[in-house]
TrEMBL record, chain A:
Transmembrane segments: 29-56, 89-113, 125-144, 183-204, 235-254, 260-279, 286-306
Protein's UniProt keywords contain Transport: yes
Annotated protein name in UniProt: ABC transporter permease
Any one GO biological process: transmembrane transport
Location of the ABC transmembrane type-1 domain: 90-307
UniProt family annotation: Belongs to the binding-protein-dependent transport system permease family. CysTW subfamily.
From TrEMBL, chain B:
Name assigned to this protein: ABC transporter permease
One GO BP: transmembrane transport
Location of the ABC transmembrane type-1 domain: 79-267
PANTHER family named in the record: INNER MEMBRANE ABC TRANSPORTER PERMEASE PROTEIN YDCV
Origin species: Candidatus Segetimicrobium genomatis
Record PROSITE patterns: ABC_TM1
Membership in a protein family: Belongs to the binding-protein-dependent transport system permease family.
Keywords recorded for this protein, A-Z: Cell inner membrane, Cell membrane, Membrane, Transmembrane, Transmembrane helix, Transport
Pfam families the record matches: BPD_transp_1
Its membrane topology: Multi-pass membrane protein
Gene3D superfamilies named in the record: MetI-like (1.10.3720.10)
UniProtKB/TrEMBL annotation, chain C:
Lineage: Bacteria, Bacillati, Candidatus Sysuimicrobiota, Candidatus Sysuimicrobiia, Candidatus Sysuimicrobiales
Superkingdom of origin organism: Bacteria
Annotated source species: Candidatus Segetimicrobium genomatis
ABC transporter domain mapped to chain residues: 13-243
Keywords: ATP-binding, Cell membrane, Membrane, Nucleotide-binding, Translocase, Transport
Protein name: ABC transporter ATP-binding protein
Length: 316, 299, 352
């Protein structure tokens, strides 16, 4: 029995892995470097490198005659970006993102409130899943489903007809700018789908923020004579606002960068994502596509700076 | 001192205060319906006999589109490519995410926050930025589109999923387990194999399945890195813009939902079980109490 | 084992000017210490005094900033835990949750590739030693705190280490179980005869179990010695205060009582309460004071006496004939305290 014991004294011939293990034990920094190198190399070089490539490309230009990218730094592409049509695209996308964000925040509130305040643990776990599932899965297919719903012969029109509301729908679709021949080809339809796909991103941070408001605050407010509406406006809303901002970062930036929804349900009015896709694709104008992408990045940078100031990142 | 009745009324008043109002319940239910009924519509339309439009209610129900879809080589090709891409992406994400999590967990080194930030960035930025960035790099370096250009694009935003899962598990598990193993004679590698890996197993499985689901139905980044290759989401996207095979598209849509939903549900189960759902924990606590009552007495 | 006799003269553990800094914090500050083979040695001190860090340095979980540690004469600098012939019982037991009790205990043997049948035999043998026979198939989650403790002990002992490190192993147990485990641990140590190094903040535990102990404070060793030695002859006011309750008399009060300004301690149980007018024999110290607080503790009573020369002394008295009522009546009474001069222990002050 003692023979097996002495096998563990130092200097006994150890296996290669054991020697390597000891070697690294004595050099914790080297061990750390070895752990970090592959992920940092991957994300640092490939990902950050690509982001740099994007910036570089946006300062290249496209030769109009040959259709080749001229690899010389110039501001010409940014000049092309600032045409009337392109500014319209940027404007339209930003307004859509803003409207979607506000609507999502309003819709997210009751669900978050119910989850944070009233749901029993079991119900809450179920609701979490019900919100997480659409966030994780098949965004494309979920958009596609609205094509079925909003189609002329689809369930929405069918319900509207059943309810005798065709005139109201026709009036909505007749509105200039947001209307169209049918909901499946209109900004109104796009709006419905955007709210639908990004809503979970809004619910989760608001729910997390609500969760952190102690019950005693609400009781204190009620105790001091505030009616529920006053408590909501004066106590809950200010405390939950950072959560709303955190959620809005998602809804805003995701709308800015999306091209699936406009392709599926939009009309001839283009959005930033579509422009990027079109320019890099058949047109082969990667510089202009890159410059177009810089726009949402800038908008988001401004937005994030403002959000940071509002303390939104504590709620993530 | 409060009387018994006082306490009873107080309790019932508190319970009343916890009861949601009807408008709140209705609004919650409405939003949940909004979030989920579109999936039901897809499932319904997979069985419709209507092959030209999206008529509701369906004129009739049939199973024939499953057969038609089964016989479509383009769908099989796209499905195969998507599965291969998702598998390769998951493998890369598992390795890189675990390494990054281990590094961030084991020491407080300078720039630790930066690593976290870098890992999270690809999923925080909209897909279109990742996509066009990779496209720009591919263009600059004249790299031909291939299976690997897709995988590399997907792996950038899948690493974080594994990273988060593994890091959360590491933070929950006690460092003294690793020390105990080394104290008992196990080298770092043996400790990883016998102690760390088993405790990470479900976190890795959950992270891996989420990464798989994320990669399998990714469309935005893929559009920029796939070139002429057609993954299943690209196939669906093409149908979205130029619908040609509506009934078959419905079948594929249903398939994509199933392939992504099931791993997510499983991953959710796995991460919850190990973190100790209240129910489980309470069972364990009761068991512990029973033992201490009967077996800690002097023997 | 022939090498046993030769190592008798070599300490099992030797600290030679060992320090461990964490940034600016001196967790262990220039500690020199010998722990002999077969000793039950306690590292006693308040939390944050460096005792656990010392244990981790011995185990190899941490490396000293400076100084050398020798295990049985061998410098262990840079030696990882798995190359050291010591085993640890962790404060939180650190039982592997995915393995059974048997799997946990056999882990070290499995790593060392001890053949299966021998493994089984040794696990059974050690389970017997810690009185956990028949529990090999349980999972740690199914055990009570006391049982986990035994498994953790068995898991370390099954490897026959030459030194066993115990990091506050009884801290999580309730009082009754703790007292029972103290006796068992001591018995096991005597039975197998290896060195136990025991970290604790509980002075009573250290006094009960140890052959010798080291008192830690602010990363330094204040005193090393046998329990009775440390208790009766505390070398600093910190030790006097930490090991048992003690009175430290300093400055003017000391001069008024003994005629010298040298600080000294005297244990509360050595002091006797007399009437203020009582006579004092030769070779006894005395001080007048007023009882400011009476704490009745059942078997004995603790009095706080404010001295007329300044300061206060704690006095304990067995309740041989007195009752709770009697002692409470003493509150506020002027008394004379007397004790034998030989019970005064000069101490260094200012270390706490």
């Amino acid at each position: 029995m003692t023979a097996t014991l002495s096998a563990r004294t130092v200097g006994s011939p150890a296996g290669l892995s054991r020697r390597l293990s000891t070697y690294l034990y004595r050099r914790p920094t080297l061990a750390l470097v070895l752990l970090l190198t592959p992920p940092l190399l991957y994300l640092g070089v490939i990902y950050l490198g690509s982001l740099a490539a994007l910036l570089v490309q946006s300062f290249f230009s496209l030769d109009g005659f040959t259709g080749q990218v001229v690899r010389k730094l110039t501001l010409a592409t940014y000049r092309d970006l600032l045409t009337r049509a392109n500014l319209d695209i940027i404007m339209r996308t930003t307004v859509m993102a803003a409207v979607v964000t506000v609507t999502a925040a309003i819709l997210a509130f009751p669900v978050s409130f119910y989850m944070a305040r009233y749901a029993a643990p079991r119900t809450k776990a179920f609701l979490y899943l019900a919100v997480l599932l659409p966030l994780w899965s098949s965004y494309l297919v979920r958009v596609y489903s609205w094509k079925l719903i909003l189609a002329k012969e689809g369930i929405l029109n069918w319900s509207v007809t059943r309810l005798g509301l065709e005139d109201a729908l026709q009036w909505l679709l007749g509105l200039p700018g947001i209307g169209g021949p049918s909901l499946s080809v209109s900004l109104l339809g796009m709006f419905l789908v955007y709210v639908y796909v990004w809503l979970p991103y809004m619910i989760l941070p608001i729910e997390a923020a609500l969760e952190r408001v102690p019950e005693s605050y609400l009781e204190a407010s009620g105790d001091l004579g505030a009616r529920p509406q006053q408590t909501f406006r004066r106590v809950i809303l200010p405390l939950v606002f950072p959560g709303v901002v955190a959620g809005s970062i998602f809804t805003f930036s995701l709308t800015l960068g999306d091209f699936i929804v406009p392709y599926a349900l939009g009309n001839s009015a283009l959005f930033i994502g579509q422009a990027v896709l079109a320019h890099q694709g058949t047109a082969g104008n990667i510089p202009l596509a890159a410059a177009f992408t810089v726009v949402p990045m800038l908008i988001m940078a401004v937005y994030l700076a403002a959000a940071k100031r509002l303390g939104a990142f504590d709620a993530l | 001192m409060r009387s018994k009745e006082d306490r009873a009324t107080l309790r019932s008043r508190r319970r009343n205060a916890r009861r949601p109002s009807w408008p709140l319940i209705l609004a919650t239910g409405g939003v949940l319906l909004y979030l989920h009924f579109p999936v039901a519509i897809i499932i319904l339309f997979a069985f419709t006999t209507d092959d030209a439009a999206f008529r509701f209610p369906p004129p009739g129900l049939t199973l024939r589109w499953f057969g038609v879809a089964w016989d479509r080589p383009d769908i099989w090709r796209a499905l195969l490519l998507s599965v291969e891409v998702a598998a390769a992406t998951t493998a890369i994400a598992l390795v890189l995410g675990t390494l990054a999590a281990a590094a961030v967990h084991r020491s407080k080194f300078f720039g630790r926050e930066t690593v976290s930030f870098l890992v999270t960035l690809p999923i925080a930025l909209p897909g279109i930025i990742t996509g066009i960035s990779l496209r720009s790099a591919i263009g600059l370096l004249n790299i031909p589109f291939s299976f690997w250009t897709i995988v590399i694009g997907h792996a950038t935003f899948c690493v974080v999923v594994v990273y988060n899962n593994v890091l959360a598990r590491l933070r929950r598990s006690s460092l003294s387990l690793i020390e105990a193993s080394m104290d008992l004679g196990a080298s770092a590698f043996e400790t990883f194999r016998y102690i760390v890996l088993p405790s990470l197993a479900t976190a890795l499985l959950a992270g891996g399945m989420l990464a798989f689901a994320l990669s399998f139905d990714e469309i935005i980044v893929t559009t920029f890195t796939a070139g002429q290759q057609e993954t299943l989401p690209i196939w669906v996207f093409n149908q979205l813009t130029k619908p040609r095979y509506r009934p078959v598209t419905n079948i594929v849509a249903m398939l994509v939902i199933a392939v992504t939903t099931i791993p997510i549900l499983l991953a959710n189960r796995l991460t919850q079980e190990k973190s100790g759902v209240p129910l489980r924990r309470s069972v364990r606590r009761t068991a512990g109490k029973l033992h201490s009552n009967s077996e800690d007495l002097p023997q | 084992m022939p090498e046993c006799s030769s190592t008798r003269s070599v300490p099992a553990v030797r600290f030679d000017g060992v320090s461990r800094y964490f940034g600016d914090v001196r967790a262990v500050d220039n500690v020199s210490l010998d722990i002999f083979d077969g000793e039950f040695f306690s590292l006693l001190g308040p939390s944050g005094s460096g005792k656990t860090t010392c244990l981790r340095l011995i185990a190899g979980f941490d490396q000293p900033t400076s100084g050398t540690i020798r295990l049985h004469g061998q410098d262990v600098a840079g030696l990882p835990p798995y190359e050291r012939d010591v085993n640890t019982v962790f404060q939180d037991y650190a039982l592997f949750p995915h393995m059974t009790v048997g799997g946990n205990i056999a882990y070290g043997l499995m790593i060392k590739k001890v053949p299966g049948p021998e493994r089984v035999a040794r696990v059974a043998e050690i389970l017997d030693l810690v009185r956990m026979s028949g529990m090999a198939a349980r999972k740690p989650a199914q055990l009570s705190g006391g049982q986990r403790q035994r498994v953790a002990l068995a898991r370390a002992l099954v490897n026959h280490p030459r030194v066993l490190l115990l990091d506050e192993p009884l801290g999580a147990l309730d009082l009754k179980l703790r007292q029972q485990m103290q006796i068992e641990l001591k018995a096991i140590q005597e039975q197998i005869g290896i060195t136990f190094i025991y970290v604790t903040h509980d002075q009573e535990e250290a006094l009960t179990m140890s052959d010798r102990l080291a008192v830690f404070n602010h990363g330094r060793v204040e005193q090393v010695g046998a329990p009775a030695d440390v208790y009766e002859h505390p070398s600093t006011d910190f030790v006097a205060g930490f090991v048992g309750v003690s009175n430290v008399v300093t400055g003017e009060a000391a001069r008024a009582i003994t005629g010298s300004p040298q600080s000294f301690t005297v244990r509360p149980e050595k002091i006797v309460l007399r009437d203020a007018g009582a006579a004092v024999a030769d070779g006894w110290c005395t001080a007048l004071g007023r009882i400011s607080e009476v704490i009745y503790l059942g078997a004995h009573t603790r009095f706080q006496v404010e001295l007329e020369v300044g300061g206060a002394l704690v006095v304990t008295q067995q309740n041989v004939e007195t009752t709770s009522m009697d002692v409470q009546a003493a509150q506020g009474r002027r008394v004379r305290l007397v004790w034998q001069r030989s019970h005064n222990r000069p101490v260094l002050t200012g270390t706490s």
